[in-house]
Design a protein that fits this description.
This protein is α+β, with helices and mostly antiparallel strands. The chain folds into two domains: 111 residues, 3-Layer(aba) Sandwich (NADH Oxidase), CATH 3.40.109.10; 167 residues, NADH Oxidase (3-Layer(aba) Sandwich). The protein is built from ten helices and nine strands. Strands 1-2-4-3 form a four-stranded antiparallel beta sheet, covered by helices on one side. It has a three-stranded antiparallel beta sheet with strand order 7-9-8, sandwiched between helices. The protein has a two-stranded parallel ribbon with strand order 5-6. Helix 2 packs across helix 7, helix 4 crosses helix 7 and helix 5 runs antiparallel to helix 9.
């Protein structure tokens, strides 16, 4: 059965469909894709999918909100690239926590070339879990990524050598804690090493075991023999933390949008990226990371940036699986 998507505001049905497809290309923990959408005459709803919460790794739904925020940014960028202005209302109905946002296309807009460029990067962006080369990321890149985060009301601090060393230790400690937790390992294994027919989770072909001696512990999602980098000294990637000044649901949803703007900016700069999630998934170590950063910013996600070997994107659910009937939208 073919999904029928109605025209929304000043968008045609085909433009709505294209924008929804762009939204589904956002990153998510273990590729759970924890989002649902609804399209009606008054706009597009963005919803959390409660059936895709990770109760062990993400008990407070923080990463779910980051993922849905990333999908929301993609939706905004794709609509803007059509020459239409998206007006976004976050948490429009407070008693309904799964209704995260409504996006209403309200009329023509002069196209922001920077945002339109990021919209073109959406199909290219994907997580690269392979080892990175020793090619150095220019220091000026950090300033560009920080500006991208600031545009979405988040913060990307510049880490000094002591903070990088402290973060490495937190990564090792949190990785060890999670790997010694049978409940975490069982949940992780349910979503990883999927076969090629699966439309979610992380397939074996997308994995990338790090080289021996890599100071940054990466989760082993499987191995990729074809196209992998030659053995050599462990690279030192650019590692950045994206944080928020508060830590409620609104802050997390906004930071998810910032995360995606940062990731698309990195993609436009021809950088690869992957996530270092362990220190922000273990609550007491996340608090230690906050102290390490100076205490003024709540760390929400850690990114590893560099130049990896070619990697295929992970699969996505069809629109038929993620588009549901609207509950709020009216003409």
């Amino acid at each position: 059965m073919t999904l029928q998507v109605a025209a929304t505001g000043r968008l045609t049905s085909e433009q709505v469909r294209s924008a929804l497809r762009a939204a589904t290309l956002a990153p998510s923990t273990h590729n759970t894709q924890p989002w649902l959408f609804a399209s009606g005459p008054g706009g597009i709803e963005v919803r959390a999918d409660p059936d895709r919460i990770l109760p062990v790794a993400d008990a407070d739904r923080r990463e779910l909100l980051l993922s849905c925020g990333a999908a929301l940014f993609n939706l905004r960028a794709a609509i803007h690239a059509c020459g239409v202005h998206p007006v976004v209302t976050l948490f429009p109905r407070r008693p309904e926590p799964d209704l995260l946002a409504v996006v209403r296309p309200v009329g023509g807009a002069s196209v922001d070339d920077r945002l339109a460029r990021l919209a073109r990067e959406i199909p290219r962006r994907h997580t690269n879990r392979s080892p990175f080369s020793t090619e150095v990321v220019p220091p000026a890149v950090v300033g560009l990524l920080r500006h991208a985060a600031e545009l979405e009301h988040a913060w990307l601090p510049r880490l000094d050598h002591g903070q990088v060393a402290g973060l490495k230790e937190l990564v090792r400690t949190s990785h060890r804690i999670q790997m010694n937790d049978p409940a975490f390992v069982a949940e992780w294994q349910r979503w990883t090493a999927r076969d090629r027919s699966s439309r979610d989770g992380v397939p074996m072909s997308a994995g990338g075991t790090p080289p021996a001696g890599d100071a940054w512990v990466l989760r082993d999602f499987g191995t990729r023999a074809a196209g992998s980098l030659r053995p050599g000294p462990a690279p030192e990637p650019l590692v950045v933390v994206i944080g928020s000044f508060g830590d409620d649901h609104l802050d997390r949803l906004r930071t998810g949008q910032a995360m995606q703007r940062v990731l698309l900016t990195a993609t436009a700069l021809r950088l690869d990226a992957s996530f270092i999630s362990q220190p922000v998934e273990v609550a007491h170590l996340r608090e230690r990371l906050r102290v390490l950063l100076g205490g003024g910013v709540w760390p929400q996600i850690i990114l590893r940036l560099g130049h990896g070997s070619p990697a295929a994107p992970v699969p996505r659910r069809d629109l038929e699986e993620v588009v549901v009937a609207p509950t709020l939208l009216t003409a």
